[in-house]
Amino acid sequence: MTSAEERVEGWKPRTRLGKMIQEGRISSVEEVFAEGLKIREPEIVDVLLPELQEEVININLVQKQTDAGEKSRFKAIVAVGNRDGYIGLGAGKAKQVRTAIEKGAMNARLNITLVRRGCGSWECGCGKPHSLPFQVRGKCGSVEIVLIPGPRGLGLVASEEAKVILGLAGIKDCWTKSYGSTRTIPSFAYAVFDALRKTCSLVTTKEWVG
Ligand SMILES: [Zn+2]
């Protein structure tokens, strides 16, 4: 598997944003998002978030009936995050597990998103970004998850997969409630990702007033 350093070394940007980053005209993900630019090359994320970590969330064997017979491929769901407010989730399919993981990791980079953190727990009030600023709900298919802000020291009260994703995003304390077929790991992981993404799209009534 190629490392982020190797990818960056041999990188020849194919997009305008890629070129701007290689020329040093843009040097942070914040700027990319502020300009409303879309990330189309995983190397952009490698350059801007060099401390990114990867975790395989799920691997499935997918069998498909074709004219040529049965075709089986692996599908990997991979999460990436810097444990400090950035999270991405992606899927990759390939004949080999390794390649599926690699593709998933690249797609996760392309889906990188900012997570707004905060201390939204009335029991805490420390004001530090250890949890979520408010309750958020995420959905994927029939699976729904609610992330509830928790006090400092609580930890992540969540399933193993949710713990991995929340941890990579930099959330340290929260409660979770889930509904639907939560044992369908891919849908469940996407529901968690959807909830985290919503921390940035939702504006609280408090902010309207303030
Ligand atoms: Zn707090």
Chain-averaged pLDDT: 93
Q: Which molecules are bound in this entry?
A: zinc ion
Order of SSEs: HHHHEEEHEEEEHEHH
Low-confidence segments? none
Overall spatial form: flat
Strand content: 25-35%
In whole angstroms, how far apart are the ends?
49 Å
Number of extended strands: 8
Give the helix/strand class.
Answer: alpha+beta
Instruction: Walk across the major sheet and give the strand order.
Output: 1-2-3-4
What proportion of the residues is helical, as a percent range?
25-40%
Number of helices: 8
* Biggest sheet record: 4 strands, antiparallel
Please specify the SSE layout and strand pairing.
Layout: H1 4-9, H2 16-22, H3 29-34, H4 42-48, E1 53-66, E2 69-81, E3 86-94, H5 97-110, E4 113-114, E5 136-140, E6 143-149, E7 156-157, H6 160-169, E8 174-179, H7 185-201, H8 205-209
The structure holds zinc ion (ZN).
Explain the overall architecture.
- This protein has 210 residues and is of the alpha+beta class.
- The chain contains eight helices and eight strands, in the order ααααβββαββββαβαα.
- Strands 1-2-3-4 form a four-stranded antiparallel beta sheet. A four-stranded mixed beta sheet has the order 5-6-8-7.
- β1 and β2 (69-81) form a beta hairpin.
- α6 runs parallel beside α7 (185-201).
- The longest helix has 17 residues, at 185-201.
- The chain is flat and about 55 Å long.
- Bound molecules: zinc ion.
